[in-house]
Amino acid sequence: MAFEIPQIPLAEWCDIALDWATDHFSGVTRAMSAVVGTGIEATTDFLVGLPPWLVIAAFGLIVWRLTTVRIALWSVLGFLFLWNVELWRATLQSLVLVLVSTLFALAIGIPIGISAALSKRFWRVASPALDMMQTMPSFVYLIPAIPFFGLGAVSASFATIVFAMPPTIRLTALGILQTPPMLVEAADAFGSTKWQKLFKIQLPLAIPTIMAGINQTIMLALSMVVIAAMIGAGGLGGEVWKAIQRLEAGMGFQAGIAIVVLAVILDRITQHIARRLRTDTEHG
Amino acid sequence: MSQNRPRIRVRGLTKIFGDDAGPALSLLQAGRDRNEVLKATGAVVGLQDVSFDIAEGEILVVMGLSGSGKSTCLRCINRLIEPTAGQVMVDDVDVTTLGERELLAFRRTRFGMVFQQFALFPHRTIQRNVEYGLEVQGVPVAQRRERALAAIETVGLAGWDQHYPAQLSGGMQQRAGLARALALDPDILLMDEAFSALDPLIRRDMQQELVALQRRLKKTIVFVSHDLDEAIALGGRIVLMKDGRVVQEGTAADFLAAPADEYVRRFVEHIDVLGVVTAGDAMRAPAAVKPWFSTAAAALASLTQSGEPVVTVVCQEGRFQGTVDAETLKGAGETELRFLLSDKDACVPEGATLNDAVSKLASGRGEIAVVGSGRELKGVIANADLVAALARRRQEAGPQTAH
């Protein structure tokens, strides 16, 4: 061929960008990693150190307060099963990782979602970025996580936050943008400032929608936490990973079913809360 | 007359929807109409050179069909819609030139707004809804609670303050909407089709209550409506709009008597004439009036001669006393009329509408008196006069004149 079209060195560019970021920021991120990692470990160790029946009872009580007796009883049954198959420690590791990642995802995602709703320009930038975050195979996030945060739970948490955050951002923005225009107009007519409108009208009305986003974020976080076992996050995903390496199908399924049980519990709880908030805002 | 000092003066208000209003505005000012502007620039003209005054304590109804620009016009007054050109003067302040902070302050204290679909905040109780305007102003909790409860009581919703909007009927929700506007104690109420979403019966009640409330509170009200009957019920002046322009300004009776064009004529065609024409318009000079000391025999003679169904009896000062019919007179000989009087209530004030006259006529003996504020006799209306007045109006208001 007379013309040879040179290959676009996309991979190299990505490496260069990552190297640059690693050189400049990894000191900070490693330090953060140490703090967060210690926190995650300490929490897990604390929970593992308690008698499982006590943790299960406390959990059941919290679920009962937040939702219904039915959901609380099923949750307790689910946890008893996880204890019974001796996946208690792994379950707690995964649960803590999911909850910590979700908290971070919300702390970052909700403000981003609000900004996206308030500024069209910001939304135009954020929207394709969110599409990319969600369509990128989740494994890919694991690779750059390691130079920044090292092997282990914090890297897993970082990848999980990136992967699980988009629904919270999207649904926060959506919830705010969906405020009926006449209510926005009424708020304006009474002389509300932008922030008064946001905090008194738009955000309260968006809460059910935001809660639906939180539900999705938790589910995505759980799926990512399992994958993150590949970089040493442990937990239920770690059990699956071990089963693969040893070709033990039974162990693999047992851990897999345990993940399903945990997923169902978390899903029912958050869905119930979302539904209750929805009827609250509609009917007082 | 300080009562009639204009509170709001709208001058040359123009709204062009679209990103680039400049070229469209110059076309308009060059005398092109909105269709030509739309074709040439793609910009939609919402309002074109709208001007009118609103006096203090007046209910002005801005009326028109959908798309006439009436709601846009209302929203330009508090700048929920930013006018492209023109002025809105409230007292001595030009609202269109206010900066952001001043505009917020103005909206918080001077304007109360009521919406067609109520626009109550579903996540707040009625009380918290009514408090809203005070809350954004930063009024202390105890004080705003007190003012909110007072406003809730004013609109007849006492006891419902802890309910949520979804628990109330449409009529009650709109009462809450009104209370939310009143709680601010603004001097101007902007009401956008406020009663249009309500059932007809409830709508009529609300109209009457608003009129009563207005008499008590003396607010200046701009009321947008598409319903001529509503405009008449509210009883104020009307600004009739079409295609973003003012077609005619005046009372419903003015529209009937002298429609500005074919559009106004058609608009008032189906008007309830009985509710617009006054007794003063329909009355004629009485043919059989007697002072109350004249005798029955003299009255009978005058009655037979005039062809009236009853003798109208007045006192020395010309005040209406009652009527006496032919039956009674025949057997009474020289008895003075004042001992024979019946139907002391067979009269209506001059300013009353024919609706009132009709019900009096129906229960009386074929003729009623029309009186001034001191019951002084002004004229009479017999059944035939009523019919004649209606026929006259029909002719004036009809699309084609047969004769």
CATH topology of the domain at 55-86 and 97-110 and 186-271 in chain B: Rossmann fold
The largest interface is: A-B, 22 and 31 residues
Helical percent range of chain A? over 70%
The proportion of strand residues of chain B reads 15-25%
Tally of alpha and pi helices of chain B: 17
Shape assignment of chain B: globular
Helix content percent band of chain B:
25-40%
Separation, N- and C-terminal Cα atoms of chain B: 43 Å
Describe this structure in words.
Chain A: InterPro entries: MetI-like, MetI-like_sf. The complex is a heterodimer of chains A (284) and B (403). Chain A has 284 residues and is mainly alpha-helical. Helix content of chain A is 86%, strand content 0%. The longest helix of chain A has 40 residues, at 10-49. Chain B is α/β, with parallel strands linked by helices and 403 residues long. Chain B has 17 helices and 16 strands. The radius of gyration of chain B is 27 Å and the shape is globular. The two termini of chain B are 43 Å apart. At the A-B interface, α8, α9 and α11 of A face α4 and α5 of B.
In short:
Chain B: The complex is probably composed of two ATP-binding proteins, two transmembrane proteins and a solute-binding protein. The complex is probably composed of two ATP-binding proteins (TmoW), two transmembrane proteins (TmoV) and a solute-binding protein (TmoX). With 284 residues, chain A is mainly alpha-helical. Chain A has helices at 10-49, 52-66, 69-84, 88-118, 120-135, 139-149, 153-177, 181-189, 194-227, 235-246, 249-283.
